[in-house]
Amino acid sequence: MERKFKYEVMKEIKERWSPRAFDEAPVEKDELMAVLEAASYAPSCFNEQPWRFIVADDENKLKRLRGILAPSNQEWANRAPVLILIASKKNFEHNNKNNKWHEFDAGTAWGFMALEAQRRGLITHAMGGFDKEKAYREFNISDEYDLITVVALGRYGDKSNLSKELQEREQPAARKGIDELILNV
Ligand SMILES: Cc1cc2nc3c(=O)[nH]c(=O)nc-3n(C[C@H](O)[C@H](O)[C@H](O)COP(=O)(O)O)c2cc1C
């Protein structure tokens, strides 16, 4: 595995990765809203737009959102100035039947969010490591929604705030070659 692009792709894809060294400085409201708007323009099955965002950018909400993170994520994500819990509506609005694609679509929204953030000089890091049951209780979220991931958003900060172990992991991850991803069936 390596991180070497063979083909020309957009700059934001090439440059995005998932850092942990967040600067604590707040993200401007307009920047935050633009990133969420970018996410809202993701395509979705029946244009359902199943994604919902629980946004923490003030100390009170941040405290509550930090409280649902796995300790291994709290270690670094507690410095992020914005945390976004992505929920996703399980059923279609038009017929109340199960939407089998809602997680796929919420994932697309996260991708759009990450790339718009990158374009604006912001960094993002998604986390599956959080306590779902605690999150449902803490934010009084209805079971109409699945809780997908928490995203840390902010700007790159000082790597020396991280533990030695995390400092060593503070680099873009490698990728499988595209040849490995095409199933020759
Ligand atoms: C759905 C999802 C869940 C993830 N969960 C965590 C997590 O709980 N903690 C963490 O440190 N990184 C987490 N990551 C980050 C991945 O480890 C990272 O995206 C992957 O190693 C690829 O690295 P890159 O984003 O730097 O290219 C998660 C990423 C995604 C998309």
Element layout with pairings:
Elements lengths: L10 H5 L6 E2 L5 H12 L10 E6 L2 H8 L4 H7 L4 E8 L12 H18 L3 E5 L4 H7 L6 E12 L7 H5 L9 H4 L4
Antiparallel strand pairs: 1-5, 2-3, 3-5, 4-5
Helix pairs in contact: 2-5
The chain binds flavin mononucleotide.
Describe the structure.
The protein starts with 10 loop residues before the first helix and ends with a helix. With 185 residues, the chain is an alpha+beta fold. Strands 1, 2, 3, 4 and 5 form a five-stranded antiparallel β-sheet that branches. The mean pLDDT is 97. The protein has eight helices and five strands, in the order H-E-H-E-H-H-E-H-E-H-E-H-H. Helix 2 packs across helix 5. The protein has one domain: NADH Oxidase, CATH 3.40.109. It binds flavin mononucleotide. Flavin mononucleotide (FMN) binds next to strand 4. Flavin mononucleotide binds next to strand 4.
Features:
8 helices, binds flavin mononucleotide, NADH Oxidase, 18% strand, globular, 185 residues
Largest β-sheet summary:
5 strands, antiparallel
| H/E topology pattern | HEHEHHEHEHEHH
The top level CATH class name: Alpha Beta
**Whole-number average pLDDT?**
97
Structure summary:
With 185 residues, the protein is an alpha+beta fold. The protein has helices at 11-15, 29-40, 59-66, 71-77, 102-119, 132-138, 164-168, 178-181, and strands at 22-23, 51-56, 82-89, 123-127, 145-156.
